[in-house]
Amino acid sequence: MKKINLIVWCCLFLINTQAQNKPLELVYKQVDTTVLKMQVYYPQGYVKGEKRPTILLFFGGGWNTGSVNQFKHQALHFAAEGMIAITADYRVNSRQHTTPFECVKDGRSAMRYLRTHADELGIDTGRIAAGGGSAGGHVAAATDLTRIDEATDDRSINARPNALVLFNPVFNNGPGNYGYDRLQDSYQDISPYHNIRKGAAPTIVFLGTKDKLIPVATAKQYQQKMREVGSRCELLLYEGQGHGFFNYKSNKSNPYYEATLKEADRFLRSLGYLN
Protein backbone atom coordinates (compact mmCIF):
# COMPACT_ATOMS: atom_id res chain seq x y z
CA MET A 1 0.00 0.00 0.00
CA LYS A 2 2.76 2.44 0.96
CA LYS A 3 4.70 1.71 -2.24
CA ILE A 4 1.61 2.39 -4.38
CA ASN A 5 1.02 5.70 -2.64
CA LEU A 6 4.61 6.77 -3.23
CA ILE A 7 4.45 5.86 -6.91
CA VAL A 8 1.32 7.98 -7.28
CA TRP A 9 3.08 10.81 -5.47
CA CYS A 10 6.19 10.68 -7.64
CA CYS A 11 4.15 10.62 -10.84
CA LEU A 12 2.17 13.59 -9.64
CA PHE A 13 5.31 15.63 -9.23
CA LEU A 14 6.56 15.10 -12.75
CA ILE A 15 5.12 18.59 -12.92
CA ASN A 16 6.17 20.96 -10.18
CA THR A 17 2.74 22.18 -9.18
CA GLN A 18 -0.59 20.64 -8.34
CA ALA A 19 -3.94 22.21 -9.17
CA GLN A 20 -5.42 23.47 -5.95
CA ASN A 21 -8.90 22.06 -6.57
CA LYS A 22 -7.75 18.58 -7.60
CA PRO A 23 -6.76 16.76 -4.41
CA LEU A 24 -4.41 13.86 -4.12
CA GLU A 25 -6.31 10.85 -2.75
CA LEU A 26 -4.40 8.54 -0.41
CA VAL A 27 -5.32 5.47 1.61
CA TYR A 28 -4.17 6.07 5.17
CA LYS A 29 -5.66 3.04 6.88
CA GLN A 30 -7.41 -0.27 6.27
CA VAL A 31 -9.40 -2.18 8.87
CA ASP A 32 -10.64 -5.54 7.60
CA THR A 33 -12.44 -4.61 4.37
CA THR A 34 -12.87 -0.93 5.26
CA VAL A 35 -10.47 1.35 3.38
CA LEU A 36 -10.09 4.86 4.77
CA LYS A 37 -8.88 7.66 2.50
CA MET A 38 -7.81 11.26 2.81
CA GLN A 39 -7.97 14.05 0.25
CA VAL A 40 -4.82 16.22 0.15
CA TYR A 41 -5.15 19.77 -1.22
CA TYR A 42 -1.89 21.50 -2.12
CA PRO A 43 -1.29 25.24 -2.47
CA GLN A 44 -1.06 26.57 -6.00
CA GLY A 45 2.59 26.59 -7.03
CA TYR A 46 3.71 24.08 -4.43
CA VAL A 47 7.12 22.67 -5.34
CA LYS A 48 8.29 19.21 -4.30
CA GLY A 49 10.69 19.39 -1.38
CA GLU A 50 8.98 22.30 0.34
CA LYS A 51 7.73 21.78 3.88
CA ARG A 52 4.42 23.45 4.54
CA PRO A 53 2.18 23.85 7.59
CA THR A 54 -0.76 21.49 7.37
CA ILE A 55 -4.33 21.21 8.62
CA LEU A 56 -6.26 17.94 8.91
CA LEU A 57 -10.07 18.33 8.93
CA PHE A 58 -12.76 15.90 10.13
CA PHE A 59 -16.45 16.02 9.17
CA GLY A 60 -19.32 16.06 11.65
CA GLY A 61 -22.36 13.82 11.90
CA GLY A 62 -22.71 12.68 15.48
CA TRP A 63 -20.27 9.79 14.95
CA ASN A 64 -23.18 8.24 13.01
CA THR A 65 -22.87 9.66 9.51
CA GLY A 66 -21.25 12.51 7.56
CA SER A 67 -19.32 13.29 4.40
CA VAL A 68 -15.63 13.83 3.82
CA ASN A 69 -16.67 16.74 1.60
CA GLN A 70 -18.14 18.80 4.44
CA PHE A 71 -14.89 20.72 4.89
CA LYS A 72 -13.81 20.65 1.24
CA HIS A 73 -14.28 24.40 0.83
CA GLN A 74 -12.49 25.21 4.07
CA ALA A 75 -9.67 22.98 2.83
CA LEU A 76 -9.56 24.87 -0.47
CA HIS A 77 -9.40 28.11 1.48
CA PHE A 78 -6.48 27.00 3.65
CA ALA A 79 -4.66 25.68 0.58
CA ALA A 80 -5.16 29.06 -1.10
CA GLU A 81 -3.52 30.62 1.97
CA GLY A 82 -0.43 28.43 1.53
CA MET A 83 -1.11 25.42 3.75
CA ILE A 84 -1.48 21.78 2.84
CA ALA A 85 -5.11 21.03 3.72
CA ILE A 86 -6.46 17.54 4.19
CA THR A 87 -9.94 16.09 4.68
CA ALA A 88 -10.04 12.58 6.11
CA ASP A 89 -12.70 9.90 6.17
CA TYR A 90 -13.26 7.87 9.32
CA ARG A 91 -15.54 5.05 10.39
CA VAL A 92 -19.08 5.91 11.51
CA ASN A 93 -22.01 3.96 12.86
CA SER A 94 -24.27 4.14 9.79
CA ARG A 95 -21.62 2.71 7.47
CA GLN A 96 -19.37 0.54 9.62
CA HIS A 97 -21.53 0.03 12.75
CA THR A 98 -18.80 1.46 14.95
CA THR A 99 -18.68 3.47 18.17
CA PRO A 100 -17.18 6.91 18.85
CA PHE A 101 -14.02 5.13 19.99
CA GLU A 102 -13.33 3.93 16.43
CA CYS A 103 -13.81 7.50 15.19
CA VAL A 104 -11.05 8.69 17.52
CA LYS A 105 -8.82 5.74 16.68
CA ASP A 106 -9.06 6.69 13.00
CA GLY A 107 -8.33 10.33 13.76
CA ARG A 108 -5.16 9.44 15.61
CA SER A 109 -4.18 6.97 12.86
CA ALA A 110 -4.58 9.76 10.30
CA MET A 111 -2.29 12.04 12.31
CA ARG A 112 0.30 9.28 12.57
CA TYR A 113 0.09 8.71 8.81
CA LEU A 114 0.87 12.37 8.17
CA ARG A 115 3.85 12.32 10.50
CA THR A 116 5.13 9.05 9.07
CA HIS A 117 4.89 10.32 5.48
CA ALA A 118 5.76 13.94 6.19
CA ASP A 119 8.84 13.97 3.93
CA GLU A 120 7.11 12.73 0.80
CA LEU A 121 3.96 14.76 1.49
CA GLY A 122 5.86 17.97 2.19
CA ILE A 123 4.55 18.44 5.73
CA ASP A 124 6.21 20.54 8.41
CA THR A 125 5.74 18.25 11.42
CA GLY A 126 6.09 21.15 13.83
CA ARG A 127 3.04 22.84 12.32
CA ILE A 128 0.22 20.34 11.93
CA ALA A 129 -3.22 21.55 13.00
CA ALA A 130 -6.34 19.41 13.33
CA GLY A 131 -9.89 20.66 13.04
CA GLY A 132 -13.46 19.72 12.40
CA GLY A 133 -17.08 20.37 13.19
CA SER A 134 -19.38 18.86 15.81
CA ALA A 135 -18.36 15.18 16.16
CA GLY A 136 -15.47 15.96 13.81
CA GLY A 137 -14.39 18.67 16.24
CA HIS A 138 -14.55 16.04 18.95
CA VAL A 139 -12.34 13.71 16.90
CA ALA A 140 -9.83 16.51 16.32
CA ALA A 141 -9.67 17.46 20.00
CA ALA A 142 -9.47 13.81 21.03
CA THR A 143 -6.47 13.23 18.76
CA ASP A 144 -4.65 15.68 21.02
CA LEU A 145 -6.02 14.88 24.45
CA THR A 146 -6.96 11.20 24.62
CA ARG A 147 -4.93 8.02 24.33
CA ILE A 148 -7.39 5.97 22.30
CA ASP A 149 -5.31 4.06 19.76
CA GLU A 150 -5.76 1.37 17.15
CA ALA A 151 -3.98 -1.79 18.30
CA THR A 152 -2.08 -1.94 15.01
CA ASP A 153 -0.79 1.66 15.22
CA ASP A 154 2.86 2.37 15.92
CA ARG A 155 2.50 4.20 19.21
CA SER A 156 6.04 5.51 19.05
CA ILE A 157 4.74 7.97 16.43
CA ASN A 158 3.15 11.08 17.88
CA ALA A 159 -0.59 11.23 17.14
CA ARG A 160 -1.11 14.71 18.61
CA PRO A 161 -1.63 17.86 16.50
CA ASN A 162 0.21 21.09 17.26
CA ALA A 163 -2.94 23.25 17.16
CA LEU A 164 -6.72 22.85 17.01
CA VAL A 165 -9.40 24.68 14.99
CA LEU A 166 -12.78 23.54 16.32
CA PHE A 167 -16.23 24.35 14.91
CA ASN A 168 -19.03 23.75 17.47
CA PRO A 169 -17.18 20.71 18.85
CA VAL A 170 -18.86 18.23 21.17
CA PHE A 171 -15.83 18.27 23.44
CA ASN A 172 -17.50 17.50 26.77
CA ASN A 173 -19.15 14.09 26.80
CA GLY A 174 -19.87 13.90 30.51
CA PRO A 175 -23.29 13.67 32.22
CA GLY A 176 -25.72 16.19 30.79
CA ASN A 177 -23.63 16.75 27.66
CA TYR A 178 -23.73 15.43 24.12
CA GLY A 179 -22.80 11.77 23.71
CA TYR A 180 -23.16 10.70 27.32
CA ASP A 181 -26.20 8.57 26.50
CA ARG A 182 -24.02 6.50 24.16
CA LEU A 183 -20.81 6.52 26.17
CA GLN A 184 -22.13 6.16 29.73
CA ASP A 185 -19.36 5.13 32.15
CA SER A 186 -16.67 5.19 29.44
CA TYR A 187 -17.06 8.94 28.81
CA GLN A 188 -13.99 9.89 30.84
CA ASP A 189 -11.72 8.01 28.44
CA ILE A 190 -12.95 9.78 25.31
CA SER A 191 -14.20 13.19 26.45
CA PRO A 192 -11.61 15.88 25.58
CA TYR A 193 -12.78 18.07 28.47
CA HIS A 194 -12.00 15.33 30.97
CA ASN A 195 -8.53 14.78 29.51
CA ILE A 196 -7.24 18.35 29.34
CA ARG A 197 -3.69 18.40 30.67
CA LYS A 198 -0.57 20.50 30.57
CA GLY A 199 0.71 20.78 27.01
CA ALA A 200 -2.75 20.76 25.40
CA ALA A 201 -2.53 22.24 21.91
CA PRO A 202 -3.48 25.90 21.42
CA THR A 203 -7.12 25.98 20.37
CA ILE A 204 -9.71 28.22 18.75
CA VAL A 205 -13.41 27.38 19.15
CA PHE A 206 -16.33 28.72 17.08
CA LEU A 207 -19.80 28.39 18.63
CA GLY A 208 -23.27 29.82 18.05
CA THR A 209 -25.09 31.08 21.13
CA LYS A 210 -28.24 29.16 20.10
CA ASP A 211 -26.49 25.83 19.59
CA LYS A 212 -28.83 23.17 21.00
CA LEU A 213 -26.08 20.57 21.38
CA ILE A 214 -23.26 22.57 22.99
CA PRO A 215 -24.27 25.15 25.60
CA VAL A 216 -22.19 28.30 25.82
CA ALA A 217 -21.55 27.48 29.47
CA THR A 218 -19.95 24.17 28.47
CA ALA A 219 -17.61 25.94 26.05
CA LYS A 220 -16.65 28.51 28.68
CA GLN A 221 -15.84 25.72 31.12
CA TYR A 222 -13.63 24.12 28.49
CA GLN A 223 -11.84 27.42 27.91
CA GLN A 224 -11.31 27.94 31.65
CA LYS A 225 -9.90 24.45 32.14
CA MET A 226 -7.52 24.95 29.21
CA ARG A 227 -6.30 28.19 30.74
CA GLU A 228 -5.79 26.50 34.09
CA VAL A 229 -3.23 24.14 32.54
CA GLY A 230 -1.51 27.03 30.76
CA SER A 231 -2.87 26.40 27.25
CA ARG A 232 -4.28 29.00 24.91
CA CYS A 233 -7.97 28.65 24.13
CA GLU A 234 -9.91 31.29 22.20
CA LEU A 235 -13.70 31.06 22.28
CA LEU A 236 -15.60 33.03 19.61
CA LEU A 237 -19.36 33.24 20.11
CA TYR A 238 -21.78 34.08 17.28
CA GLU A 239 -25.01 35.59 18.55
CA GLY A 240 -28.21 33.79 17.62
CA GLN A 241 -26.49 31.09 15.57
CA GLY A 242 -27.26 27.39 15.84
CA HIS A 243 -25.37 24.19 15.18
CA GLY A 244 -23.49 24.10 11.86
CA PHE A 245 -23.79 27.84 11.30
CA PHE A 246 -20.29 27.93 9.76
CA ASN A 247 -20.95 25.50 6.90
CA TYR A 248 -20.34 26.42 3.28
CA LYS A 249 -23.59 26.81 1.34
CA SER A 250 -23.48 26.20 -2.41
CA ASN A 251 -26.82 27.88 -3.10
CA LYS A 252 -26.15 31.14 -1.26
CA SER A 253 -23.44 33.06 0.52
CA ASN A 254 -22.94 32.44 4.23
CA PRO A 255 -21.31 35.34 6.09
CA TYR A 256 -20.47 33.04 8.99
CA TYR A 257 -18.50 30.72 6.72
CA GLU A 258 -16.36 33.70 5.75
CA ALA A 259 -16.21 35.13 9.26
CA THR A 260 -15.03 31.91 10.89
CA LEU A 261 -12.37 31.37 8.23
CA LYS A 262 -11.12 34.93 8.72
CA GLU A 263 -10.70 34.27 12.45
CA ALA A 264 -9.13 30.87 11.80
CA ASP A 265 -6.60 32.59 9.53
CA ARG A 266 -5.82 35.13 12.25
CA PHE A 267 -5.33 32.36 14.81
CA LEU A 268 -3.09 30.30 12.51
CA ARG A 269 -1.14 33.40 11.54
CA SER A 270 -0.46 34.12 15.21
CA LEU A 271 1.06 30.63 15.50
CA GLY A 272 3.24 31.07 12.41
CA TYR A 273 1.20 28.77 10.16
CA LEU A 274 0.29 31.54 7.71
CA ASN A 275 2.24 34.52 6.48
- Under CATH at level 1, the class stands as Alpha Beta
The end-to-end span amounts to 35 Å
Strand order of the largest sheet: 1-2-4-3-5-6-7-8
Number of helices: 10
Keywords:
275 residues, Rossmann fold, alpha/beta, globular, 8 strands, single chain, eight-stranded mixed sheet
Give a quick summary of the entry.
34% of the residues lie in helices and 20% in strands.
Topology of helices and strands:
Elements: H1 2-12, E1 24-31, E2 34-41, E3 52-58, H2 72-80, E4 84-88, H3 93-96, H4 100-116, H5 118-121, E5 123-133, H6 135-145, E6 163-167, H7 180-183, H8 187-190, E7 203-208, H9 216-228, E8 233-238, H10 255-270
Structural description of this entry:
With 275 residues, this protein is α/β, with parallel strands linked by helices. The chain has one domain: Rossmann fold (3-Layer(aba) Sandwich), CATH 3.40.50.1820. The protein has an eight-stranded mixed β-sheet, sandwiched between helices. Helix 4 packs across helix 6. The longest helix is centred in the middle third of the chain and has 17 residues. It is globular.
